[in-house]
Amino acid sequence: MRSRNWRRSLWYLLLALVAAPFLVMYVGFFLRAFGEGMTLGIIPRQWGITSFRFMWQPIAWGLGRTTMWAAFGNTVVFATVSGLVVTAVCMLAGYALSRVEFRGKDFFLVLQLILHAVPGQILLIAIFFLLLYLGLLHRLSGVALARASLEIPLGIWMAKGFFDGIPWDVERSAMVDGCNRFQVWYRIFLPLVRPGIAAVFIWGFLFAWHDFIYVYTLLPGTIKLMSTLIQNLLATEVVDYGYLAALSLVYTIPPLALFVFLQRALLKVPVFGGKGTA
After folding, report:
1. Residues 125, 20 within the same domain
2. Residue 8's domain spans which residues?
3. Are residues 19 and 107 in the same domain?
4. CA distance linking residue 90 with residue 153, whole number of Å
5. Do 156 and 90 touch, CB atoms closer than 8 A?
6. Total of domains in the chain
7. 3-state DSSP call for residue 153?
8. Is 42 within the bounds of a domain?
9. Confidence of residue 269 (pLDDT cuts 50, 70, 90)
10. Alpha-carbon gap, residue 150 to 118, rounded angstroms
11. Domain co-membership, 33 together with 101
């Protein structure tokens, strides 16, 4: 009994040592955001919300015509469009790859993994010229489509996994009742894979929300998102770290809120009695 408790204590100690740097980082993050008059750079003399003044004042340091709410709204639109595109394409492609047999299916699946393994930075120049020829360069919607394309390959695998979990008897029964392929997908399968829809949307939304390289390269300086706004503040001669911490805290709230809101759907994974293979 003592040996078991000793081992458990060692494991807890090891986990605490691993988690300590991350815990210190987050504690310092909140102290900087809500603290005022810092001592030694980490101990606040008093508490307040002065660092959050960007919520009712224009951004300082030469960015007077930029407001946090404009950048925040652009980021929400950018991430939502990307998430919706990823969800629509992956739900359609995932169903087709799960239920329809066609020549080259296995090669197509392997190709999706290869495409996902390619870093997005390598494709940046090609995507730049593609958007230029399509007339979508320097447009929020065009860059959102480009960002969504990077997450579609693995998103297809995620969607296919959810459709594979639905027994073939469900599809056959629907088709016997007169449903075509699209009606089976829309009326029968989508309600059964709601956790998959939520998971794929969160996947596309989060990667677009925290994107910097594509936004910084493909959008003009007049269209600011939260990531480029924070980068501009870091590039100033004098950096107000409390101000920066508060802005970064606001930047992290929507993804956390989205996950909390959809976590119930993510936990409701359907369990079926059969396998999704023919």
Report:
1. no
2. 2-48
3. no
4. 8
5. yes
6. 2
7. helix
8. yes
9. very low
10. 9
11. no
